[in-house]
Amino acid sequence: MIETAEEMPTLAVLANGAGLSPYHFHRVFKATTGVTPKAYALAHRATRVRDQLAGARKTVTEAIYDAGFNSASRFYETSSQFLGMRPTDYRAGGIDTEIRFAVGQCSLGSILVAQSAKGVCAILLGDDADALVRDLQDRFPQAILVGGDVAFEQTVAKVIGFVEKPARGLDLPLDVRGTAFQQRVWAALRQIPIGSTVTYAEIASRVGAPNGARAVAQACGANALAVAIPCHRVVRTDGSLSGYRWGVSRKKSLLTREEVE
């Protein structure tokens, strides 16, 4: 109902459709999805706006209303949270959005660090420095990508230092972009102590979605801030290492060095 309705159904309407009282429906919905019905609706509509802005030849206002927002001003109030920038900038692939970046080397291979005006927006790991830059370009095809100066390279050094010595911590502002559910998962991941691991099922329970282990795994895979959001500390129920966006070998290496510390 939420995903197909032109306007967000009221809690009473949703509860009636499920045959439950509003209070019980709200509690069950949050336990199942990890977010409230309102947050779920906002995240779904934000996704629709992203699709509209990226693919359709419509004005920003048309995209907002077609996605189910009945108030453009209401969407603009939360657009930065969901899009990471103004809707017009997002539609243009981040046009005129300045992002500083630099590629360095660490014990795990190449590492790209990028920073917007809000904070570090990407920490990418890989074997091919050029591939990391292309990944960043794909995220912001029209952004103004600026090579880091000496001051920014100090930021990169801090990130590399954190990779090599996790106990140091990472005292840098982050520009975290994602859906409401992803934000909840990533916040939970940042609460996992260094040297510890938890299962996908445990994280699902912590974010109020006990049946959402698969969704948690997908949120981990969507994380673009390696190490800063420690998705490498999440393992399967039997303790084995599962897939990792930047390679299982890197995941194992990160966990090993954290155990030593």
Query: What sequence of helices (H) and strands (E) makes up the elements?
Result: HHHHHHEEEHEHHEHHEH
Round the mean pLDDT to the nearest integer and report it.
80
> Kindly, what is the distance between the CA atoms of the first and last residues, rounded to a whole number of angstroms?
49 Å
The CATH level-2 architecture of the largest domain is identified as: Orthogonal Bundle
CATH topology of the largest domain: Arc Repressor Mutant, subunit A
Assigned CATH superfamily of the largest domain: Homeodomain-like
| Total count of strands | 6
The secondary-structure class comes to alpha/beta
How large a portion of the residues is in β-strands, by DSSP E?
5-15%
State the CATH class of the largest domain: Mainly Alpha
Note the main sheet: 4 strands, mixed
- Total count of helical runs of at least 4 residues: 12
Low-confidence stretches: 71-87
Strand order of the largest sheet: 3-2-1-4
Anisotropy-based shape: globular
Describe, in plain words, how this protein is organized in 3D:
- The chain has about 260 residues and is α/β, with parallel strands linked by helices.
- It folds into 3 domains: about 10-90, Homeodomain-like (Arc Repressor Mutant, subunit A), CATH 1.10.10; about 100-170, Double Stranded RNA Binding Domain (2-Layer Sandwich), CATH 3.30.160; about 180-260, Arc Repressor Mutant, subunit A (Orthogonal Bundle).
- Helix content is about 50%, strand content about 10%.
- It has helices spanning about 10-20, 20-35, 35-55, 60-65, 70-85, 85-90, 130-140, 150-165, 180-190, 200-205, 215-220, 250-260, and strands at about 100-105, 110-115, 120-125, 145, 200, 235.
- The strands form 2 sheets. It has a 4-stranded mixed beta sheet, sandwiched between helices.
- A hairpin with a 2-residue loop joins β1 and β2 (about 110-115).
- The chain is globular, with a radius of gyration of 20 Å.
